[in-house]
Amino acid sequence: MDMSIVQHEAPFGVLIVLYLFLAGLSQGLFLVAAASLFAGLERFRPLARPAAAMAMATYLPAVLALILDLGKPSRFIHMLLYYNPSSVMSWGSVILIGYGLVLAALILLLWRNHRLARLVGAIGMAPALGLGLYTGLLLAAVRDRPLWSSGLVPVLFVVSGLVAGMALLMALARWTSGVSGLEKGHGLSALHSLKAWLVGAELVMLGLHFLVLFTGTASGQIAVRLFVTGPRQVSFLWVQVALGMLLPLLLLLLGPVRRSGVGSVVAAVLSLAGVFALRYNLVIGGGEIPLTSAVMNRVHTTPFVWGAVAGLSAAALVLVLLLPRLMGRLTSER
Amino acid sequence: MSAAPKRNAMVIDLRRCVGCHACTVACKMENNVPVGAFRSWVQENDKGSVPEVTRVKLPRLCNQCDNAPCEQVCPVNASQKGEGGAVLINKERCTGCRYCLAACPHDARYIDPREGTADKCTFCAHRTDAGLLPACVSTCIAHARYFGDLNDPNSEVSRLMRTHSVQPLRPELGTAPSVFYIGLDESMEGIGPGQKAGRR
Questions:
Q1: Would the CA dihedral through A125, A128, A134, A140 be positive or negative?
Q2: Does B133 touch chain A (CB under 8 A)?
Q3: Got the DSSP string for A225-291?
């Protein structure tokens, strides 16, 4: 081995990507659930229950992913015992706990048809937005990595979380229709238009971010080269942008496809893949760009990490499919 | 008047470094550094074009920044400055969240796979507390490394800082490193980001 070349560790791995994806999904679903309770947004009202239940279904595995990613998982409690006001991660642990409590309260109130649900939903929008913003800020606060260090990243995380949340609701519209009374074309077509706007906003932000990188410092240009013509080209340009953003946008804008159930589900699944790819590319792609070495940083992945990713993804999927139905059954029994 | 608190620093004279990697090996042995990780290492780069090619060497280690990004981002305050000014990790508190690895602009940190916690150079705190020099300084065959208290005007590092033009790595980040180099401009001239020796 050439002793003059030291390969360093990329800071974050795939478990963090999964955490950011599931947390974003949960934040997006919560915002949809809370907004649907507002006056004037009655057509979204059937979404409240399935969205809130799915928000919990993605929140729980997200927290577990975060804990399992720690080098010392048993010390996750330290995150609550010690606090550093200058650390975004410290803010995050408070936000994550607060968000979980508000989400649990909202589910309970929605299930009981309580009139306080609207109030709790409205108050809960703060920690939900906080969850989306902090996950982006976690990366943006790292000054020395131009791909991360932008005020657009937290906003991109919130918006893409919303897109993912809406996409999941659309993909499972038929599955949850028994629970929510959500009929095809009822609140869904309005959700289609909103999602199309949000995907458009994502594309604009992403474009601006890369334009600033390209016209900025040399290290920013290295990041652009890696993503546009380098080894990240497939996962960024083709999977994230073309398949995960442009194609679903096209499907949403095309009238006939929009009205067909299959087109809508395909667009939703592609959007979900796009949002996952966005986080994957930012976290893994941004982390493997070397700061001081001549070789790419190595990403920390062990069989345990892959096992945890597979297990938690499966758990999230099962919970997303089962929780709304379970909740619906409990409601009908009352 | 009470004396100023210690601020230990290192001055590395690049004109003297021969790139023998004795510092890398001594550090590994002294601190039982795990396979694949380094607390102290030497980056090298070939500079110029044939026939006028030179190999430049840049010894690296944690810069013990006075305004340390790792300290700023640690969610549990596990990274804190010790008495001599070196940033030390409280191993009983560190959760291994890796955020300090992301924040360090010098790639100085790693996760010790045996313990699951973050680790890095401490300026050999266990040795300096006992009045010894850090292992890399002791072992340097070319006398390229100097260690001492910047707040003591009679220390060797203070004298070198007065008599030589010294530079830290990446001063633009404002982290106030405690590792300084003599001859950095000359040796790194023409080496940009993404090249073999990496960014300064």
A1: negative
A2: no
A3: HHHHTSTTHIIIIIIIIIIIIIHHHHHHHSHHHHHSHHHHHHHHHHHHHHHHHHHHIIIIIHHHS-S
Helix axes A173-180, A303-333, angle to 10 degrees: 30
Q: What ipTM is given for this predicted complex?
A: 0.92
The amino acid occupying position B80 is Q
Convert the pLDDT of each residue in A33-71 to its tens digit. 999 998 878 878 888 998 999 999 999 999 999 999 999
User: Nearest CA to CA, how far is B3 from chain A (Å)?
Assistant: 30
Q: Is B44 on the interface with A (CB under 8 A)?
A: yes
Give start and end residues of each alpha helix (H) in chain A. 14-35, 48-69, 78-81, 88-111, 117-140, 152-171, 173-180, 188-214, 218-228, 233, 247-253, 255-259, 261-280, 286-288, 303-333
* Contact (CB<8Å) B75/A79: yes
Chain B stretch 73-112, residues whose beta carbon is closer than 8 A to a beta carbon of chain A? 73-78, 93-99, 101-103, 105-107, 110-111
Q: Which residues of A touch B (CB under 8 A)?
A: 3-9, 11-12, 69-72, 75-76, 78-79, 81-84, 86-90, 92-93, 138-139, 141-145, 218-219, 222, 287, 290-294, 300
**Do B102 and A12 count as a contact with CB atoms less than 8 A apart?**
yes
Pairwise CA distance, residues A270 & A24, whole Å: 16
pLDDT over 50 at B200, yes or no: no
Give kind and range of the element (H or E) at residue B60.
strand B52-61
Q: Please, which pLDDT band fits residue B199 given cuts at 50, 70 and 90? A: very low
Return the C-alpha torsion angle A136, A137, A142, A145, nearest 10: 40
pLDDT tens for A268-280 read 999 999 999 999 9
Counting runs of H as helices and runs of E as strands, what totals does chain B give? Answer: 7, 10
